[in-house]
Amino acid sequence: MSAQHGARILRDGFRGCKRCATLSRMTMHPITIQEPFRAVFYAPFYAALARGDYAAEGVEVTLRTGTIPANAKDAVLAGVADLAWGGPMRILLAHEADPASPLRNFGAVVMRDPFFLLGRAPRPEFTLADLAGLRLGTVAEVPTPWWTLQEDIRQAGLDPTGLDRVTDRSMAENLAALAAGELDVIQVFEPFVTLAEETGAAHVWHSAAHRGVTGYTSFTSSTERMQARRAEFKAMLRGLAKTLAWFAATPAEAIAALLADYYPDLPPARLARCIARYKALGLWTETPFYPEEAFTRLETAMLSAGAITRRPGFAATADNGLLAEAMAGWQ
């Protein structure tokens, strides 16, 4: 299914009958959703809860907080959560280990890479080929940012294995090392970018979002749970569609005000600047349709990085059919 076809399903799907919505709400089971960790680029997931978009579709959703990204899918497999959100790369890794893995992705939200390269001084003509000879601090907390960056570096004609790269520091530590002159360039996401700009410590050299659509965050569940809770998951997708449309049309300041309780350590003005930057980059989708192109770009990066040894393929790991069902004959 093409992205254009997916968008048409969503557009036409909101034209259905209200009576169907009323009937479906009578049989909804409460749903538990697992958070991988708290991050600004996950903002739409919190907005769906804060706005009550799931509840408006008749399903009660409880957030199970998390701090370890790799554990989100495990919560689904263990049955302590009905679904999670997180990187599709986790499902590719699961299918690498076991081609019969029951895990699937559906409901796209983050379809561009949310990471950046920062340097101490402005460098508007920077290209990835310029990393040769520079000391680079990459993200240690999660692997996907390096996997996608190393693929882009290869495409720029540079061997990523030959870079002078520091791999064992947190993003906060790398930002401090950059300011101290111990590193030349660092890889971080928001809010570190906005914080660095506010303090004058660093400037953006490269936005990974420009690599094109890339499967970064979606819902994850098992095939068994997707059948057992099909009505609830379809209701959630309808709610998520409303969230994403609202997110696209709403100023960053209003979004930040709504989500302040989810980011207690971020001043609202800083959170608004983070959200505005991501909105300008087109980080978040306007519908929950998962483009196969985004999956393939992620799969290719993981393959060249050696994270997987074969291509499991979109059909084996993702499901847009649930979304098509959710939006058919609905308003």
Give a quick set of tags describing it.
single chain; 331 residues; D-Maltodextrin-Binding Protein, domain 2; 2 domains; 16 helices; globular
Number of helices: 16
Structural class per helix/strand content? Answer: alpha/beta
Query: What is the CATH topology assignment of the largest domain?
Result: D-Maltodextrin-Binding Protein, domain 2
Mean pLDDT: 93
Total of domains: 2
Looking at CATH, the homologous superfamily of the largest domain is: Periplasmic binding protein-like II
Task: Give the SSE order as H and E letters.
Answer: HHEHHEHEHEEEHEHEHEEHHHHHHH
Low-confidence blocks of residues: 11-24
Strand content: 5-15%
Compute the CA-based radius of gyration: 20 Å
Measure the end-to-end span: 22 Å
| Biggest sheet features | 5 strands, mixed
Question: How would you characterize the overall build of this protein?
Answer:
- The chain has helices spanning 3-13, 18-25, 43-50, 53-56, 71-78, 89-97, 144-155, 171-179, 192-199, 223-228, 230-249, 252-258, 268-280, 292-305, 314-317, 321-327, and strands at residues 31-34, 61-64, 83-86, 103-110, 116-119, 135-137, 164-166, 185-188, 203-207, 217-222.
- It is of the alpha/beta class and 331 residues long.
- The strands form 2 sheets. A 5-stranded mixed sheet has the order 2-1-3-10-4, with helices on both faces.
- The longest helix is centred in the C-terminal third of the chain and has 20 residues, at 230-249.
- The radius of gyration is 20 Å and the shape is globular.
